[in-house]
Amino acid sequence: MKAVWNNAVIAESADTVVVEGNHYFPLAAVNAAFLKPSTTTTVCSWKGTANYYTLDVNGSSNTDAVWYYAEPKEAAKEIRGRVAFWKGVQITS
Length: 93
Description:
This protein is mainly β. The protein is 0% helix and 57% strand.
């Protein structure tokens, strides 16, 4: 699977975990040069607290387009160490 935004491959891996229709990529499969920390957090009742990254690619920013659960609840333990994408990031095989 590939995550692509602004004509750049943000992440690529054959090892994704699908939860609620979202592909969670291993953090090691993500090009960290495109990630900028964000202070945004949200809470999911069964996954826990999500943290975000903003994408910075080719001079363009996509605020909070990447999320992860640093300490997921037990029910979502399979997404620990993984990130997912939204806000126009295309996921393709």
